[in-house]
Amino acid sequence: MDPMDVDRGPATTRDHQDMTDGHARGGGGDRSYSEGALENHRPRQVIIWKDRNRSIQQLLNVQSGEEESMAMDYLDHEPMLVYSKFLHAYHCYDLIPTSSKIVVLDTRLNVKKAFLALIYNGVRAAPLWNAGDQKYLGMLTITDFIRILHQYYKQPGADIKELEQHKISTWREVLQEYTRPMIFINPEASLFEAIQKLHQHHVHRLPVIDRTTGNALFIVTHKRILRFLFLYIYEIPEPEFMHQTLEELNLGTYENLATATADMAVIDAINIFVDRRVSALPVIDENRQVIDVYAKFDVINVAAEKAYNDLSITIAQSMKNRREAFEGVQMCKKSETLKVVMERIAKAEVHRLVVVNDAGQLVGIVSLSDILHFLVLKPYSKESLHL
Which of 19, 163, 186, 334 fits a disulfide with 247 by CB distance 3.0 to 4.6 angstroms? Predict the structure, then answer.
């Protein structure tokens, strides 16, 4: 459901100032009113569109009677759609920080050097530039590194010549079944559209490409969208489902879970990543208690340590060399509410929470993509009528 198409003039500066005063204080209203009068004069939360194309917006509280000259979307009319409407009103360029770094790799670059460039620049993916055609061809990600190891690793001590000698362009030709056209989004596209593309194409990173200059500006991720939403989440209406539990909402994955053990060889974990198409493996002990999480990004440590010629080492040995500080496994329970789970995942800045029971045993996984799909895309589907 798109924002309503009302052809109204823009709100004036004075209108905005009057409304902002109420919004900054939490939208209280005159406390001397009787309860009935207060209900009639209570500000209503809306997204104000300053122009007919709805390209400039402001989240404000609006007093009764001030709506006539504005194009707006009421956030409190359809609680199920509050996050969808909100993210319709903001654009990909709203995520771009004042100062940011994006690494672009030439397809003529050696594969090994390309992955080392990702590591030393602290990024997990980079757009690929074809100098001959003067266009972007796709993305190089940690998943590509894992696929190379999956395909070419034979035994401990054997050199992986393909990793040492292949250029990125050669690698893309070898594994054509995995390559896909460049999936990107324009800066002017809404964050709702970004979530749609991430879900539709089953990707975790979406480059923002300026259509005028052709420059790559930023990479949109689920984590960055959630972080942006949390800048405003306590200012917009809160749907009732935020106070329902994961179990009540049936949110997360609880069956056929891919797992690992601390003594599992790294190559076996890599095979699971490729065969099961998962991005992380809960590491469990003999009692199914969760002791760690081994993610795709952890595999990149073998490149940093130049240990990819021996993938028989265990996950426990590999994780000793984590390049990022590890603060423990982030967990939740099915009995916790969606609001609590979202706050935890946003505060920890992780991609997923491991769901455990009271004994700390593995029950399931709830990911950022699960949450954003539920909040933003599912309300537009028929299933949302029967949550």
Answer: 334
Pair 124, 207: CB distance under 8 Å: no
Give the bridge partners for 129, in sequence order. 106, 136
The structure tokens 């004036």 sit at 12
Residue 383, CA distances (Å) to 173, 237, 238, 350, 377 in order: 41, 22, 20, 28, 11
- For residue 206, how far is the Cα from the chain centroid? 10
User: How many other CB atoms are there within 10 angstroms of residue 224's CB atom?
Assistant: 19
Q: Phi and psi of 53, rounded to 5°?
A: -85, 0
CB 254 within 8 A of CB 364: yes
Give me the amino acid identity at 190.
S
Evaluated on CA atoms 345, 349, 352, 358, the torsion sign reads negative
Sign of dihedral through CA atoms 285, 291, 296, 299? negative
Q: Which two tokens stand for residue 23?
A: 């919004």
Task: Record the tokens describing residue 142, joined without a space.
Answer: 């940690």
Neighbours of 67 (CB within 10 A): 17
Strands of 71-74's sheet in order across: 57-62, 44-49, 71-74
Write out the DSSP string of 35-61. HHHHHHH--EEEEEESSTT--SEEEEE
Per-residue tokens: 18: 């009057």
- pLDDT tens track of the chain, all 387 residues? 333 333 332 232 223 333 333 333 233 333 333 334 334 444 445 554 444 454 445 555 555 554 444 444 566 667 788 899 899 989 999 999 888 789 999 999 998 889 889 888 888 899 999 999 899 999 999 898 898 888 888 877 667 777 777 889 888 887 666 667 789 999 999 999 999 999 999 999 999 999 899 999 999 999 999 999 999 999 888 999 999 999 999 999 999 999 999 999 999 999 999 999 999 999 999 999 999 999 998 888 776 666 677 888 899 988 886 655 566 799 999 999 999 999 999 999 999 999 999 999 999 999 999 999 999 999 876 444 444
- In whole angstroms, what is the distance from residue 186 CA to residue 206 CA? 10
Two tokens at 161? Answer: 């010549």
